[in-house]
Amino acid sequence: MTATDPTTTGRDASARNHWIAVTAVAFGTFLLVTAEQLPIGLLTPVGSALSVSEGAAGLMVTVPSIVAAVAAPVVPVLVGTMDRRLLLVALMGLMTLANLASALAPDYPLLIAARVLVGVAIGGFWAIAGGLAVRLVPAPRVPRATAIIFGGVGAANVFGVPIGTMIGGLANWRIAFGALGVLALAVLVALLAVLPPLTAARPVGLRRLAVQFRDQGVRVGLLATFLIVTGHFSAYTFISPVLRELSGIDEEFVGPLLFGFGVAGIAGNFVAGAAVAKRLHRTVLTIAAALGVTVLLYPVAGLSAAGGVLLLVVWGLVYGGVSTSLQTWMIRAAPEAVEEASALWVAVFNLSIGLGALAGGAIVDALPLRGVLWLAGVLVLVAGPAVWSARRNERLG
């Protein structure tokens, strides 16, 4: 009979509990992205029910993104040394209330007010969750844990937004928002049950946020994030007309193709998670180059259904690695100030989503549809030299 080492058993149980906590946080990111992007599929029914144009209804997406960009650095500053476990639970409680308020909103101004609260929850939660892997798992496992946490982003695009849109179509858009509120409550309970205490060693102050800009690695990470995310969303916001008008793909196939884009993104997320553990700098540089080239090729090689589908899948695969690789970059660039660097990164990421959509809209209105792809490709490629400039930084190797 073999004796069991209680110390080893305890370590195994602790490791399992930490991975369960990582998974719970991943469900949180899944919910955040679903909440942020769900209105994309509900613009028409919401606009019709509340007597506003689809353009005005689009503010349901823009407003949370901008608010999240502000909330990401502000929330950590305001809460000081509050236990991050309790903070994440409180923010998920806010998300629950905000989605239920969205479902019950009697008019458009109150709906937008509820979406402001969604933005606060997104920015605050993501700012803390993005760098949480370093506190939940041993250092060698951080890239894998980060990939799992950001796997929720791709899963939201594949499952969350389409299912929410389907619920809105089959039942009512209010039911879709209500279901999101119920899901947020379930995630709240899970976080409360499995997250360990996460006491902050020090408060996140404005001075500490400002100091991060002195670090070249942080500056490069933020610039690369701005260029890549702005470029991506300037084009991806209009991917439906790109597929229809440039690639000649029928409307009925656009939904399944976007589902395929999301599946490729999930795969890319985990491929990047494995790659950054070995070669972070090379991985980010490869992503910037491959994404830029793919988007620039679209107006040339995507003018047929086959070419369009192939490039869309490659696009999804490459972009799927952006969140994991850039978040890992920020963690490595500022190992002693992960929360501060993550807060700045989340702010830039969300601001770039809104700016990308606005820039893309201006290009589409002024130039042929190809113009938005040229803009996106050039912006992403410009990130390459910025990333290259940090090649001698040992922390980012």
Task: Tell me briefly what this model is.
The chain is mainly α and 397 residues long. It has 18 helices and no strands.
Describe the protein:
The chain crosses the membrane at residues 18-35, 55-79, 86-106, 112-134, 146-169, 175-199, 220-239, 259-277, 284-303, 309-331, 343-363, 369-388. The protein is an all-alpha fold and 397 residues long. It folds into two domains: 1-204, MFS general substrate transporter like domains (Growth Hormone, Chain: A, Up-down Bundle); 211-397, Growth Hormone, Chain: A (Up-down Bundle), CATH 1.20.1250.20. Helices cover 81% and strands 0% of the residues. Helix 1 runs antiparallel to helix 9 and helix 14 (280-301) runs antiparallel to helix 15 (305-319).
Write the SSE topology.
Blueprint: H1 6-37, H2 43-50, H3 54-57, H4 59-79, H5 84-104, H6 108-129, H7 133-136, H8 142-170, H9 173-194, H10 206-211, H11 216-236, H12 239-246, H13 251-276, H14 280-301, H15 305-319, H16 322-333, H17 338-366, H18 370-388
